[in-house]
Amino acid sequence: MKVLVTVKEVAEVGDDFSIEGTEVAESDLEYDLNEWDDYAIEAAVQLAEAGIADEVVGVTIGPERSEETIRMALAKGVDRAVRVWDDAFEGQFADVESKVDVFEAVVDDEDPGLVLSGVQASDDAFGATGVALAERIGFEHAAVVNDLAIDEDAAVANVHRELEGGIEELTEVDLPAVLTVQTGLNEPRYASLRGIRQAQRKEIAVADLADLGLSADDVASALTLTSMYEPESESDAEMIEGDAGETATRLAEVLRAKGVDA
Amino acid sequence: MTDVLAVAEHRRGELRDVSYEIVTAGRELADALDGDLHLAVIAGNVDRFADDLDRPGVDTIYTLENGEEFDHNAYQSAVETLLARTDAGAVLMPNSVNGLDYAPALAESYDLPLVTDATGFAYDDGLTVTREMYGSKVETTVDVAGDRFALTIREGEWEATEGVGDAVIESVDADHPDSGARVQGFEEVAGGDVDISEADVLVSVGRGIGEEENLELVEELADALGATLSASRPIVDNGWLEKNRQVGQSGKVVTPTVYIAVGISGAVQHVAGMKGSETIVAINTDPNAPIFDIADYGIVGDLFDVVPELIAQFE
Ligand SMILES: Cc1cc2nc3c(=O)[nH]c(=O)nc-3n(C[C@H](O)[C@H](O)[C@H](O)COP(=O)(O)OP(=O)(O)OC[C@H]3O[C@@H](n4cnc5c(N)ncnc54)[C@H](O)[C@@H]3O)c2cc1C
Ligand SMILES: Nc1ncnc2c1ncn2[C@@H]1O[C@H](COP(=O)(O)O)[C@@H](O)[C@H]1O
Description:
heterodimer; A: alpha/beta; Rossmann fold; 9-stranded mixed beta sheet; two-stranded antiparallel ribbon; 6 helices; globular; B: alpha/beta; 5-stranded parallel beta sheet; 9 helices; 18 strands; binds flavin-adenine dinucleotide; binds adenosine monophosphate
């Protein structure tokens, strides 16, 4: 069984940042592998190590810069990767549907038996791509999976879905399926030096829309980002100023006034 | 004129709070669209749920018997049945864990643009949704093309609608598709030795602590204050503390007298579990950390400087 993992390079905002138009200034952004995808990668690599997956393929929609992140996935044990990018994506706020158009085409090419995706991308946090993809390609699915066992003979995945309030739903999902992986599912490995060396020789196939048989119209987004601003604070917190000693003294006063004292 | 279809949510025999909140959000949207508000109640004790949800502003409640608990295929086909029947152009669903499990599939199959985790919206020739990005560090507005769409709303963001309404309650036959995802049961995460929801004072530690061995420092603080130690999710994911210490959407909801967040950014799923605390203190190096938006007292500083000083104050 081939396992396809969607891997996103996410942007993270530094402590100080400024907003230019509808974007955070490029110099205030740092890029990293999406936390949820790190767990999805680990799950896929563990399936390969258990002999259940015969190949793990990573797929991303991202500009050339994202290859650094994709290399990280390869260094952790993903066998090869597909990176899709096109001028049509430049500067647009991609909606879920347009990403699904791309992933559908990749699924057609790769024919995986299992797709692992993250619950959400930490930057725009739609929390939707995996489940929408499942619907499009006719796979079953389960969202927010924090425990996973594949039963190849029965062609099912036995998963736990982590619900609110510390309750888990135990569900049997027919394969092929798309699962959206929750953090805590496993312990993502660090890339070893050997892994990093090997990753340099692994393939990242680059495709544009035409290569996938798609056009810019297919991926036109129904959404437009029209403004971005810092949220208004809901409380008027007393910000305690001073050096560590001064702030601790003031905070101790406050806490004692609230009745805190061992 | 566009009608709105909002979908209620329940678990193990109880409506979840968001079901009452979605009535409020749904009415707001229906007013903006000059349409009716229909409410879908799917699976479980639908008659009792419909009675509970008959609140001011709801025009019609459709009940669809379809098993006891949530099943995404049953929900999706039920909503599709109702969309065909009511001609509603806007679907409103909770951005809950179960919402994440069917809303995107529904939007995809019905070819509706989807915006998730809305914290507000306005309609003026078109829908504009307010939502956050980058772990709540920025807020954005997103315009949606066209006048049919699917929207999921953040839990706890709208007030619940109270009172008794005069909705028409109608039972609708649902398809019972053989589901390829079958719920086998539920499991409650082990109780453990402490109940953080009982604690009066919580010292709560987040990823800012960096390394497992640094946990000693916050343990010392908790001891000095006579407080109980709790944590954000990454600390538990890393296996540094037991799951029963986790505060948040998927952990415990806590309402202590004092909650001290140490190196916690204040992600929405964390805040969901602690915003009811009487006094919230935050210690964080990042002046823009969203935790400061809900804090009563804030210190912008390095926990490794501040916490030892604070311990000294109580020794
Ligand atoms: C479905 C779902 C359910 C979830 N449920 C939960 C839940 O129940 N509970 C939960 O907590 N999360 C939950 N999350 C995860 C949540 O989205 C966040 O990822 C998580 O809360 C972040 O934890 P954190 O604040 O500790 O880490 P981060 O967001 O990484 O924040 C660390 C903070 O520490 C600060 N810091 C760094 N170094 C220092 C220092 N030396 N001194 C002081 N401050 C420092 C940083 O400025 C930063 O603000 C859930 C997510 C999803 C998708
Ligand atoms: N541009 C992208 N490239 C690769 N994977 C993506 C991309 N966008 C979303 N995904 C995947 O979909 C998951 C959910 O993302 P989202 O629905 O955007 O919150 C992520 O964890 C990724 O696995």
